[in-house]
Amino acid sequence: MNRLHASPSRDERGAGLVALPWAVLAYLTFLTLAVQAAVYFYSTSVLTAVGHDATRRAAFGGGSPAAIADAERWLRSSIGAAVDIELLRWSTTTETVALELAARPPTVLFDASALVGLQHIERRFEVRRELARFAG
Prior knowledge:
It is a single chain. By secondary structure, this protein is an alpha+beta fold. Helix content is 48%, strand content 19%. The chain has three helices and three strands. A three-stranded antiparallel sheet has the order 1-2-3, with helices on one face. A hairpin with a 3-residue loop joins strand 1 and strand 2. It is rod-shaped and about 95 Å long.
């Protein structure tokens, strides 16, 4: 008579109880790192889009201090409190308006971004000024 399923020997009983917590810990660690990476890439995308739009707004206003202040106010309200802006520097020339932006993305459970090097976002935007020309 052949046995299809052999019963585990006595020395293997309980081995799953030792390995399971380590497997769950490894799974949750990798899941946290994956979620942190997704949050970083989403924050980078949002900062890039909002930074470019704010620079366009300032350039459309002619690069005046009032237009820059309005664009900066719009940028801060669009980003919200989740992203910590560390640097926001405007510069203007006769033809362009530029913005340097540095920020820290939000963290998920703990600061796992330092483990994978995703803790800082830096962007620079430069847009030509919009000057109205009238035919006449």
